[in-house]
Amino acid sequence: MLRQCFMLLAASALAAAAHAHQYSVGDLVIGHPWSRPTVSGMPTGVAYLSITNHGEKRDALISASSPAAARVEFHRTTFEAGMAHMRPAGALVIEPDTTIRAEPGGFHMMLVDLKSPLVAGTMVPLVLRFENAGEITVQLQVEPMGSSPHR
Question: 9-48 burial by CB neighbour count: b if 16+ within 10 A, else e?
């Protein structure tokens, strides 16, 4: 009985960790990096996450890369005359004591020229480079379509 309880607790902890993962570099906390699955032949994927700056000075996400794609580009979705437009974006500034979000309908990262499809339930490495905090590799959790990402 004790063994069964332990196994249940361990499984619950692993499931929670799979849904809510975060990383720290310098004064920054990167919360729940995630993506959506792609189909064969689809050349781009997307990356979403949150970044909280617990420091006293601003920082900026200046570039990103992934072994899963030829390059990673920063984009921002804007709405003009009722139409959505995706435009290239520059560095993402994170002011002190603020949280910014890369999310659908706003700022996001495009994984361009994918080397293979992104498959639900897998993890994809994403290297983030910050102006002050330096570099960190996070894992994008590829979440099934229709799921509600945890932040």
Answer: eeeeeeeeeeeebebebebbebbbbbbbbbeeeeeebbbb
